[in-house]
Amino acid sequence: MSHGSIxxxxxxxxxxxxxxxENFLFEVDGEIVVDVKPRLGYNHRGIEKAFxxxxxxxxxxxxxxxxxxxxxxxxxxxxxxIEELLNVEPPPRARYIRVIIAELERIHSxxxxxxxxxxxxxxxxLFMYVWRDRETVLDLFEMISGNRIHYAMNTIGxxxxxxxxxxxxxxxxxxxxxxxxxxxxLNVVQxxxxxxxxxxxxxxxKPKDAxxxxxxxxxxxxxxxxxxxxxxxxxxxxxxxxxxxxxHEGCDVLSRILVRCxxxxxxxxxxxxxxxxxxxxxxxxxxxxxxxxxxxxxxxEAPRGELIHYAKSNGTTxxxxxxxxxxxxxxxxxxxxxxxxxxxxxxxxxxxxxxxCFACMDRMAFVDIKKNKEWIWTMQQLRRKYAxx
Amino acid sequence: MAFLKEALKQLLxxxxxxxxxxEKLTVPKDFRGxxxxxxxxxxxxxxCFNVCPSGAIEMIGKGLEAExxxxxDRCMFCGQCAEICPENAIRMSEEYELADFDRSKMLHxxxxxx
Amino acid sequence: xxxENEIVEKxxxxxxxNLVNVTIPKKRRIFVYIKKDALEEAMEYLVKDLKFKHLSxxxxxxxxxxxxxxxxxxxxxxxxxxxxxAVSKKNPNIPxxxxxxxxxxxxxxxxxxxxxxxxxxxxxxxxxILPEKWPKGVYPLRKEHQLKHLKEMTSExxxxxx
Amino acid sequence: xxxxxxxxxxxxxxxxxxxTIVSMIRILVFPGALFLFVLAFFYEWVDRKFFARLQNRYxxxxxxxxxxxxxxxxxxxxxxKEDITPHASDKLMFILxxxxxxxxxxxxxxxxxxxxxxxxxxxxxxLIFVIFAFTLIIITVFLAGxxxxxxxxxxxxxxxxxxxxxxxIPMGLATVGPAIVxxxxxxxxxxxxxxxxxWLILLQPLGFAVFTICLLAELQFVPFDIPEAETEIVxxxxxxxxGRKLALLRLGKDLELVLASALITSLYLGGPQxxxxxxxxxxxxxxxxxxxxxxxxxxxxxxxxxxxxxxxxMWKYLLPLATLQIxxxxxxxGG
Lengths: 389, 114, 162, 335
Prior knowledge:
The structure holds 4 protein chains of 4 kinds. Chain A is α+β, with helices and mostly antiparallel strands. Chain A has a single domain, classed as Orthogonal Bundle (Cytochrome-c3 Hydrogenase, chain B), CATH 1.10.645. Helix content of chain A is 48%, strand content 13%. Chain A contains 15 helices and 8 strands. The model of chain A is unreliable at 363-389 (pLDDT under 50). In chain B, 18% of the residues lie in helices and 17% in strands. Chain B is built from 3 helices and 5 strands; from the N terminus they run H-E-H-E-E-H-E-E. Chain B has helices spanning 2-12, 47-51, 80-84, and strands at residues 35-37, 57-60, 67-71, 90-92, 107-110. In chain B, strand 2 (57-60) and strand 3 form a beta hairpin. Chain C is α/β, with parallel strands linked by helices. Chain C has helices spanning 2-15, 39-48, 105-115, 147-156; strands spanning 19-23, 29-34, 54-62, 66-75, 79-88, 93-95, 118-120. In chain C, strand 1 (19-23) and strand 2 (29-34) form a beta hairpin. The N and C termini of chain C lie far apart (61 Å). At the A-C interface, helix 1, strand 6, strand 7, strand 8 and helix 12 of A face strand 3, strand 5, helix 3 and helix 4 of C.
C-alpha cells in the first residue's frame, strides 16, 4: 500500500454520527480504514472522585446520572453493592420490581438504539417509527416512577415505589402493543433490502477476537458466545425468572440488530412473568447511615453489556473508593478491531453497532477545553453571581 | 416493498407528535415535578438540606424561624427531600415547565409567615 | 461453592507462597492477594488453565503509601475472581498483561492516567482520558489531591479567566 | 421614395420596447424567475409536509397557514446569517459556485413549457440542453466541494462526481426514449405530441421508472444522498457554506426539485394540457405536485446506499433496463 495516499480523518469530538463527544482518529487509504486511535474523556465528569465526597444516600442519584439511557442499571448495581456491604437482603417484592424496571429499561434502551442505527444508515422513517413506539415504554415509566428517564426507583434496602395492582393492566396493554410492533420491525430489518445491504457482513468481529478483546453484551452475543450476567451470575430476582439468552452467529452489524430486537421480545416475556409472579409484601427495609468496612464487586447486565461496580467502604458515611466500569469501555477495543479494513462510509453504522454510551464510559475529572480561547465560568461562580441578585 | 405499505398507511393516521405550546400532555398522578414547601408544617430540621444530592436547598436561620431558598436550576427532582421530610411538608408538584430567561426566577424563596 | 473451592485449591498449589491470602465472601466471588512479581505467571495460569478468559476491568485504589491494583477476571461470566497486588507510590511499576489478555489495553491506560501506575511494556501509554494540557505528575484519583485544590490548579491552565 | 428615417426608427423603437417589455415580464415575472421562486418554495413545502406525514409527524406548522411560509422564512433567516469564507479556500470559486448552482436550474426551467404548450425558449434540441445542464450542475457541485478546502467536502465532491458517472448514461437514455417516439428533440413538441396521443408514462413505464430513479440520484435524495451523507461526512460538499451562499444553495436545490418534477411532467405525464375550461397551467401544477410527492415518497422508503453499491447497482441494473427500453421502442412497442 503506497504510504502517500494515507490521510488522517478525524471523527469527532463533534460529529453528527456521534451523539456524544468522542474522538476517533482514522487513517484512511482511499475509502478503506487502515488504523483507528480512540481518544476518550471528552465527557468525563469526575464521578469516581465525586463518589468519595457524598454520602451513600446521595450517591444513589449520582450513580443514576452516570448515563442518561441505562440509569436504572447503574442504580441497581450500586444499591446491590451497598446492600451486600451492609449484608441487608431486599424484600422479595422489591427484587421482582427491580427485574421489571430493568427489563422495561432494556426495551427502551434497545428501541432507542434501533432508531439511531436506522438514522446512521440514512433510514429516517424507521427512526421516527421506532421512537414513536418507544414512547409507550416511557409513558409506562412515567406512570410507575414519576419520571421518563431517571426513575429513581432503587434505594438502599429495596425500592421506593410499588407497582400497584391498578397499574398492571395498563402495563400489559402497553406490552401487547409493543410486542406486535417489535415483531413488525424484526420482519422489516430482515427483509428490507436497503438495510440488509448496509448491515450484512459489515463490521465483522470473529468470536476469537470477541473473547480476547473482552467484548461484552449484545456485541459478544452477536458473535455467537452465550454469556449473560442475568443467567450466569443472577442478581435481583433473575434466578426465579425464566430467561433464554439470545445469540446469533452472524458476527456482523445485522446480527447485532437481530440480537437486540429479539432481546426486547424476550424482555416482554420476562416482565409478563414477573408481573404475575410478584409476591406481596413490603418493598423496602430500613438501613443505617454508616456502612461497615468492606469491599464488594457488584455486576449487572446493563442493556449494553456487563456493568461492574467495585465499592470499598471505610466505616464512615462516605465510600472510600468507588469504581465504575461501564459496558461501552469494554467494547471499545473490539470496536477498533471491527473498524479496521472497513469503508469510511461504514464507520457510523459500525460505531453505532456497539451502542456506545460515552456518558457512561467517562466518569472522571473536569470538563476540559480543547480550544484555549474560550473562557468558562465554573458552576459556583455562576450561582454566586446571579443567584444573589 | 413491505415498508411502502406501512408508510402509506401512516398518511391516514393522525400524526403522533404534539403541537406543543397549544396542546399539552396531561402528566400522570404522582409525577415528580418541582418540590413545594409548606412552611406551616416545616419545623426547620434541615434534613432536606443535608440530603439534597445537588445542593439545591439552602436554609436561612434555624429551627422554627428557618426559611428555605430552593434553586430550581440546581434541583434534579429526585424526590429525596420529599421522602425524608418527617412532617411531609414537601410535596412534588406537577410543574415541569420551569425554563426561564432570567436565572433569578430560578430561585424560589419560602418565607415563614407569608 | 464447590467450584470456587476447587479453583482456590488449584491456585494455591500453583502459586504456593506468592498467594498471600484468599477470601470467598459469597457465592461466585473470590478475592485473592498475590505478590507483585508473581503477577505475570499467575495471570498466565488463570487465563490459560483455569479458563478465566474475560478480564472485566482493572481497579486502582489509593491506600495512602501504596497503590493497590485489582484485576477482575471472570470464569465463563459467572465466578468473579479479583486478584489484587499492592505497589509502592515511589516506583509504581507493574508489568503489562496486554500480551496475555489484549482486552486489558484500555484499562491499564486508565489506571495509568488516574493513579500514575506505569505498566512496563504497554504498547501506548499516552493519556486516554485526561486532556493534553493536564499538568504532568498530577493523578486526580490519588487521595492527596482534594477536589478544590485540583480545580484551582487546573484553572490556571485554562488560559485567561473571566 | 425616401423613408422618414426618424419615423421608422421611432416606429421600430416603440415596437421593440413593447415587445421587449412583454418578453421581459414573461422572463422575469410570470412564467419566469419570480414565479419559479414561488414555485420552488411551494414545492419545498409540499415535500417537507408530505415527507413529515409519511413519518407520522406534522412538519412545519406555525409560519403562515399550515407552515406554508416556512421555506421562505428559512431563506431570509439564512440571508441574515454570517457569511464565512474559509481562509484557505479558493475564494473566487467559493463565491461563484453557489451562484452557478442557483442560476443553472433557473435558466433550464425556461426551456420547459409551463404556461402553454410551448416554453419561453423553445428550440429543436432543448432536451439535449437540459441533459447538459444537469451535468453542469454536478460539476458545480464538485467545484463547490473542491474549492472549500475541507476534508469532508473533498470526500463529498469526489463522491458527487462518482455518482454522476454512474447515473448520467441511464438518465440520458431515459430522456432520449420520448424523443425517439415523438421524432423531435424539443420538449415543447414532445408535450404537443402527448396531448394528441397517450401520455408517455403509459407507453414507456420502464423509461419512466429509470428516469425517476436517476432524478433521485440527480437531486441527491436519500437512497443516493451519498455526497452529503449527514452521518458520515457532516454535510458533504456543503459543509463550509454559510449565510447567503447557503441560502443560494438551498434555493438552487429547490429549483432543481422544480426542474426535476417539471421534466417528469412534460416528458412522461403530458405537461400543461387544456382540459375543457381549465387553463393548462393548472394541469401543469397538479402534475408537478404529484411528481414532487412521488419523489418524496421514494425518499421516505429507502436507506442510504454506499457509494460502491450505488455505482455497481447503476451499471449492473439501471443501464441494462434503460437500453431494454430503447430496444422496446425500436421494436415499435413504445408508441
